[in-house]
Specification:
This protein has twelve helices and 14 strands. Helix 4 packs parallel to helix 5. The radius of gyration is 21 Å and the shape is globular. The protein has 401 residues and is an alpha+beta fold. It is an enzyme of class 6 (ligase). Pfam families: AIRS (PF00586), AIRS_C (PF02769). This is phosphoribosylformylglycinamidine cyclo-ligase.
């Protein structure tokens, strides 16, 4: 995730955030109780996340290796990412502390000087999306997600990916499942025109349950020093160009699973407003933007690029804009995929929470000069859409109008 504000934490960190009633945060309208993992076998008949209920008909808000949180959510209470176990502010604070020890950290990719070029590296995983892969049996594309999260980070500097390394960890190796996952990694590397250089398969009995695995990966690319995209020459009035996402991508799944838990629909049901099931919509692989972004950079005028991951619009766009400037986003300037409309409605999620958690239909934002914006928008073809979604403003922060 590079040491930025991406805070789609692993299920191990989710365990540490489970709260009892006495630790309920102020303002929460949820009632929780904790069920020990010893009781999990009793819940074995509850197959689908969307249908999970305990004996008091309370929705299961979250599950972890250590137990289950069950609770009743007020009909008037909207879900938040923090309630689902992920604290974006805490992640940002950790980055600030690490930056004191290792100055220069905080970008989407890390730059290492090499002659007249920079090697650019990024690392990430796929977050709790793997839990839905276990539940749905969709293992063929999770590897694409893994590659995408790293190569999309390093291309924000203008770097062309060179190679990728993966790490596949499991309790008991299921060769057929692992093959499906790694095939997705190979597909992702082909899409980003980089080499799968190697990786590690770790079998760790006792750490993962049967059928479970986790993934991480690292991508390394290269860019000439005089071609680095760093946002330093961005000025007020520059244009924000948004590239569409395929859906949720690989961030925000802790909140997605909380929505599923309180929804009346299951993963097998058709997505409201869509022509696929909820499972198919949620498991759609992350778009790999490498070729499209490098093509747009070659046209000239690209000043900054933000990968919209954990932190959404609110936290990621300011990372590439000079101090003192901000951004205005034009609402309704792009097509929002039906999956986000369902997530917001089913979870009663506030607009501000959606914008800080999800990409809401835009997976990459380019800051370009006004002249370049015309070239970008006029040259797009049907297979690679781009939208004018806003502009750089003289006021700090990200606002919507």
């Amino acid at each position: 995730m590079s040491l930025g504000t991406s805070t789609e934490l692993s299920r191990f960190f989710l365990t540490a955030s489970l709260r009892s009633n006495s630790q309920k945060p102020r303002g929460s309208q949820c009632t929780f109780s904790y069920v020990s993992s010893r009781l999990l076998p009793m819940l074995g008949h509850l197959k689908e996340v969307g249908a999970r209920r305990n004996s008091r008909n309370l929705p299961i808000i979250s599950m972890s290796r250590e137990g289950v949180i069950v609770g009743a959510v007020s009909k008037d209470a909207g879900l938040t990412y923090k309630d689902a176990g992920v604290d974006i502010d805490a992640g940002s604070e950790l980055v600030r502390r690490i930056a004191k020890m290792a100055p220069g950290i905080g970008g989407f990719g890390g730059l290492f000087p090499l002659g007249d070029s920079y090697l650019v590296a990024g690392t990430d995983g796929v977050g709790t999306k793997v839990l839905l892969a276990f539940e749905t049996g969709f293992h063929e594309t999770i590897g694409i997600d893994l590659v995408a999260m790293s190569v999309n980070d390093i291309v924000t500097s203008g770097a062309k990916p060179l190679f990728f390394l993966d790490y596949f960890a499991t309790g008991r190796l299921d060769v057929d499942t692992a093959e499906k996952v790694i095939k997705g990694i190979v597909d992702g590397c082909q899409q980003s025109d980089c080499v799968l250089l190697g990786g590690e398969t770790a079998e760790m009995p006792g750490l993962y349950k049967d059928g479970e695995y986790d993934l991480s990966g690292c991508a390394v690319g290269i860019v000439k020093k005089d071609s680095v995209i760093d946002g330093k020459n961005i000025v007020a009035g520059d244009v924000l160009i948004g590239l569409p996402s395929s859906g949720v991508h690989s961030n925000g799944f802790s909140l997605v699973r909380s929505v599923l838990a309180q929804s009346s629909l299951s993963l097998k049901d058709q997505l409201p407003g869509g022509d696929v099931t909820i499972a198919e919509a949620l498991m759609a692989p992350t778009v790999i933007y490498v070729k499209q972004v490098l093509d747009l950079i070659s046209k000239g005028g690209v000043k900054g690029i933000a990968h919209i991951t954990g932190g959404g619009f609110t936290d990621n766009i300011p990372r590439i804009i000079p101090e003192g400037l901000g951004a205005v986003i034009y609402e309704n300037s792009w097509e929002v995929p039906p999956v986000f409309k369902w997530i917001q409605e089913a979870g009663k999620i506030e607009d501000s929470e959606m914008r800080r958690t999800f990409n809401i239909g835009i997976g990459m934002v380019l800051v370009v000069s006004q002249d370049a914006s015309s070239r970008v928008l006029e040259s797009q073809d049907g297979a690679a859409k781009a939208y004018r979604i806003g502009e750089v403003a003289s006021n700090k922060g990200v606002s919507f109008r």
